[in-house]
Specification:
Shape: globular
Helix content: 25-40%
Distance between the termini: 23 Å
Number of domains: 2
Number of helices: 9
Largest sheet: 6 strands, antiparallel
Strand order of the largest sheet: 1-2-7-4-5-8
Structural class: alpha+beta
Number of strands: 8
Radius of gyration: 18 Å
């Protein structure tokens, strides 16, 4: 139906996997009242079509708390980037846009409003652009850091990361604060929160990951989503948009 919320998720080609988590499309967003975006540990580049048919391009910083989605957006295509893309694709820190976003030129990367008519063509065009921007050489220590924390959903100590990446704990934390505006510990908490969502969606409202106890679990979930695990599970009126991901994977 024309007015049904329509969500699609496409994984990138393996050659982009270090930098891109996924491409996504959300159509008819205005049919959800008070839609909520919750932290996912990604950097989202949003190409949105407003109700008055204008193209807006927005680069979102990493989220550390839930927030309401814009109400004047009807449809959007998004590229969700892994943190490594900040330095090597965008080539600028995003520490100053933690929990917020910044408007980019509406012709960013050569996109036009017509590109929001075909999601597959959008993904192809974006993939070619990102492939072109990938540098020939990167700091392998940084690749290793993200490989470790993403593979373990944040459940890894900074000491272990430091030893395996051959990079000092102090330098790693400085890198996170300078590039993203938050500590490695906070980022790992976001990843663990995200890894808990599929369990919560299935009604498993007790810790499935390495939380200290039930109280700690509830506190961390509420800190990042704004509600308790029980309220997340109910997901009244499909408000929590991040839950859409788990219909696709």
């Amino acid at each position: 139906m024309e007015n049904t919320l329509n969500y699609k998720l496409v994984k990138p080609d393996k050659s982009l996997a270090d930098y891109v988590y996924c491409f996504s499309s959300l159509q008819n967003l205005t049919n959800i009242n008070n839609a909520v975006i919750i932290p996912n540990g990604k950097i989202d580049l949003l190409f949105s079509k407003t109700l008055d048919n204008e193209l807006h391009v927005l680069l979102m910083g990493i989220e550390t708390k839930a927030k309401l989605a814009k109400s004047d957006v009807s449809n959007f295509f998004a590229i969700s980037f892994n943190p490594l893309a900040v330095e090597y694709i965008f080539q600028q820190p995003i520490a100053d846009i933690l929990n917020i976003g910044k408007e980019l030129k509406n012709d960013f990367w050569g996109f036009t409003i017509e590109d929001l008519d075909n999601f597959d063509a959008f993904c192809d065009k974006a993939s070619r652009k990102i492939q072109y921007l990938i540098p020939k050489e990167i700091d392998e220590r940084k690749r290793k850091v993200f490989e470790l924390i993403l593979a373990k959903n944040g459940e890894v100590s900074i000491k272990e990361i430091s030893e395996k990446a051959c990079w000092s704990e102090r330098q790693i934390n400085r890198y996170f604060n300078q590039q993203f505006g938050l500590s490695l510990k906070i980022y790992c908490n976001i990843l663990r929160f995200q890894a808990s969502l599929p369990h919560i969606k299935k009604g498993k409202l007790f810790p499935q990951l390495n939380f200290t106890d039930q109280s700690h679990f509830i506190k961390e979930i509420k800190k990042l989503s704004g509600v308790s695990p029980k309220e997340l599970f109910k997901n009244k009126n499909d408000r929590f948009l991040q839950f859409l991901v788990y219909n696709e994977e």
